[in-house]
Amino acid sequence: MNTTDSFSSGMPAGSDDSPEDTGVAAETVVEANFDETEDDLARERALRAGLEEYELDDEDLHLLDDEFDDEGRPAAEIFPVLAIVGRPNVGKSTLVNRIIGRREAVVEDKPGVTRDRVSYPADWAGRRFTLVDTGGWEVDVAGMDAKVAEQAEVAIDQADAVIFVVDATVGATDTDEQVVRLLRRSGKPVVLAANKVDGPGAEADAALLWGLGLGEPIGVSALHGRGVGDLLDAAMEVLPRESAYGVARPDGPRRVALVGRPNVGKSSLLNKVAGSNRVVVDETAGTTRDPVDELIELQGIPWLFVDTAGIRRRVHQTKGADFYASLRTQAAIDKAEVAVALIDASAPMTEQDVRVVQQVIDAGRALVLAYNKWDLVDEDRRPYLEREIEKDLVQVRWAPRVNLSAKTGWHAAKLVPALEQALESWETRIPTGRLNAFLGELVAAHPHPVRGGKQPRILFATQVSSRPPRFVVFASGFIEAGYRRYIERRLRETFGFVGTPIEISVRVREKRRR
């Protein structure tokens, strides 16, 4: 028999009322002890030698012999900023996707899909720069459209150069003329892109845009890629090599994804911690579609916060812009190190809230639970909320909890200690000798139940990775799910692991035949 079974701490579909159920309250964890004694090291050597009597495959040997190593973080770099602006539905996001070489920006054949200013790393002809997509700029608009236009103006103000996109098939409109005046006041170098020039016959349409007074219009087809290389060559000529506006975007600052169902306050929280109206906030659910990242210094520490689209339902049940927004949200979670799952404390918890939390756990990211709109929670609501948490999130008692109000900023400062605690646990490594000593004490005090006249024995254990912590346990027989949950709970009680999922894989191995 040579089998492997994996157990990841999360939220199974059905509840389990056994006393071995996993999870401890984050605030009750004792201080971890990671010191290895000589006895621990001697135990490790003896157990490792004992494994030689069992049938091990090449993967087993690799796990046992491979050195545990975490990747370092590259140094910060600042790249020049190139913003893409224009009125709605001229193809700005399609051009962004063409330049960066992948479908990153949400695109749909209707105006107003992009709402925030969104940054992407890009390069051309050996030069690296930050490309900023913006929502459509319009004059004399109100409500959400006015907020979108304001974000586009901020993008121009914080760019080193601008690509102004005009629909060549329509020609210059009054709105385009207004954008030209805005660009001239900014004093930024501008390259004029005449989009939707899909063939030589449309070149005449592009030529008419000379009248805007921005120099030669470069005919491009963002959809088909025609002329985009010439456009970028022109942009590189005016884009300075030293940025006056770029922000260091290394992998060094910790990446924090703000996730949750629509309208729970993710964008409001980002604006509050950023200290400015960085993203569009509106009462309309689903305002955010593209992930928006912002480098923010909190308590002297740089953090890269990523605002994401609200997760409405399962991805296959969405369509259009919402479908692509859901995909981008999953990608943002995968790129993050820790996720803040926002839950509306003033309203009953929903299946979507639980699904968002599970999505973070499945991605193996550290987790902080933020109960937003706490200023709207009255004395009557609190007992119901606590019962909902106990019922729906019982399996994630290990996640730190912060009660806050994104609108007023109340308790927003408590996010940083919770994030630091979750990330520290996410990167924790237990020395092999200490881990096996812990398991020895655990089994001696609470041995695995005997089933069918047999009692499986834990032979050896090792932590194979962190971020999140993953453990492999070699055993002589099948380890029941309840006992694995018991191991996880005791791991958390002894070593902490506050705010991180952990995974325990059991490899059942037989003795070699003589």
Question: Can you give a write-up of this model?
Answer:
With 514 residues, the protein is an alpha/beta fold. The chain has 3 domains: 2-70 and 428-509, 2-Layer Sandwich (GMP Synthetase, Chain A, domain 3); 81-238, 3-Layer(aba) Sandwich (Rossmann fold); 254-288 and 307-410, Rossmann fold. It is 32% helix and 19% strand. The chain is built from 14 helices and 16 strands. The chain has helices spanning 38-50, 58-65, 92-100, 143-157, 174-186, 203-207, 228-238, 266-274, 320-335, 351-362, 381-392, 415-426, 432-445, 481-495, and strands at residues 2-8, 81-85, 118-124, 127-133, 161-167, 190-195, 218-219, 254-259, 292-298, 301-307, 338-344, 366-372, 401-403, 458-465, 470-475, 503-509. The strands form 3 sheets. Strands 3-4-2-5-6-7 form a 6-stranded mixed beta sheet, with helices on both faces. Strand 15, helix 14 and strand 16 form a beta-alpha-beta unit. Helix 1 crosses helix 13 (432-445). The chain is elongated, with a radius of gyration of 27 Å. The two termini are 16 Å apart. 41% of the residues are buried.
